[in-house]
Amino acid sequence: MELTSSLSRDLVLEVSKKLGEPQWLQTKRLEAWETFAKLPYPTTRTEEWKYTDITEVPFEELPLELPKGGVSEIPQAVQDRLAQAQLSGYAVFVGADLVHVELPEEYRQQGVIFTSLHQALAQHPELVEANLFQAVNWHDLVGAQKNRPENSKIPALGAALFTHGVFLYIPKNVEFSKPIGVFKYLEGGRLSSSRTLIVGDVNSQAVYIEEYISPARVAPSVNTSSTEIIVGNGAKVRHAHIQLLGQGFYHFHRQRAHLQRDAALNDLVVNMGASISRAEVQSEMLGPGSSSEMLGLYFTTGQEHVDHYTLQHHVADHAYSDVLYKGAAKDQSRTVYAGLIKVEQGAQKTDAYQTNRNLLLSADARSDSVPQLEIGANDVKCSHGSSTAPVAPEELFYLMSRGLPRHLAQQILVKGHMADVLTRIPIEPLRQYIESIIEEKVRV
């Protein structure tokens, strides 16, 4: 089912009605719509978007994708991933349709909830209402972004018109270390919008991997996604967002985690597809002793453009955060990274680090890197740094003089450049899969 109406308040109401949503959620959607309608799109005059031009993105020209219903087969590309991913449970979306979900009975008996967001709304309304829009909404700006409300434009669109999503709840003291995976297969030519809500209760532990897949080339398409991660006292969540969409896609992702006392988040963002992609990944250290590890990997080819923004927001004292984003660019592609460590006045004994490293594989490739600090406390350890450099000619010559073809020599150098991120991914099948993508992009 598709709605071809232009973006409007009436469209928001129609989506909510077709999805059978409660009144409180419809009200939230309308609030988000009002924000979207009154704000301009960010432009290159907006500081956080100065290197990324989205004037050609057809936000308001595409039909909105809704669930079609009925039975749909799992695409072959997803079947191939399922065969190698070694998951404990998984869900598959084709467009906005949840076509398969599987969770071990032992997890269900322990109270784990893993389902579509709208099924959770029907079956666990109190849990969803208490947590939805708590971390990612249309007015969640922090630091310098607060002064530029247009940064809320795209998240407001996603909140007003999301049509599908995932809900994962891990009860108190329940732990599992084998990943749960979600695969979203998008065929393109539409405006697609989804939300993910992950809630880890006190002293729980979980691993969640979400992948976006499409054909290699599609008609112009827009995908907006939001991920909210609520990590309770002493809980641990390991999360990965893998974007492998085809050329023609414009992908916009905002993610925010709320970390309570002694909570821990280990996050990985991989962007290796789409014509233009932007990921905003943010951790809020709200409780003492909380910790956040944020890893990023990206590789651009052709004329791809990837933009990352990270925020380490230290609200509580004695918290730790570490950002390590590394990427490579070849051909005429471009990468952008901007990161902010923001430490509030009461966040004494903060320990925070931010590193961005970029490797250029051609003379026409470009990387822009803007690390930033905003420190309000006086007893902290904070550092940030970045570097951008071409492949060292002598290193490439050395490898090729040993009989390696150029693409294989570059492959070794790129994997070496990204090694300290790859080695921090403890999920072996996922690490091998990412390495295979890197190898393929070097060969192209």
Radius of gyration, in Å, reads 21 Å
Binned, the helix content reads 10-25%
Task: Estimate the mean pLDDT confidence.
Answer: 94
Class by helix and strand content?
alpha/beta
Please tell me what the overall shape is: globular
Summed up, the domain count is 1
State which percent range the strand residues make up.
35-45%
Strand order of the largest sheet: 4-3-7-9-11-13-15-17-19-21
Largest sheet: 10 strands, mixed
List the quaternary state of the chains.
Answer: single chain
The first-to-last residue Cα distance is: 37 Å
GO biological process, one term: iron-sulfur cluster assembly
Pfam families: SUFBD_core, SufBD_N
Domain SUF system FeS cluster assembly SufBD core: 190-416
InterPro entries: Fe-S_cluster_assembly_SufBD, SUF_FeS_clus_asmbl_SufBD_core, SUF_FeS_clus_asmbl_SufBD_sf, SUF_FeS_clus_asmbl_SufD, SufBD_N
Describe the 3D structure:
By secondary structure, this protein is of the alpha/beta class. It has one domain (2-391). It contains eleven helices and 21 strands. It has a ten-stranded mixed β-sheet with strand order 4-3-7-9-11-13-15-17-19-21, with helices on one face. Strands 5-6-8-10-12-14-16-18-20 form a nine-stranded mixed β-sheet. A two-stranded antiparallel sheet has the order 1-2. Strand 3 (89-94) and strand 4 form a beta hairpin. Helix 2 runs antiparallel to helix 7 (153-161), helix 5 crosses helix 6 (125-131) and helix 9 (406-417) crosses helix 11. It is globular, with a radius of gyration of 21 Å. The two termini are 37 Å apart. The mean pLDDT is 94.
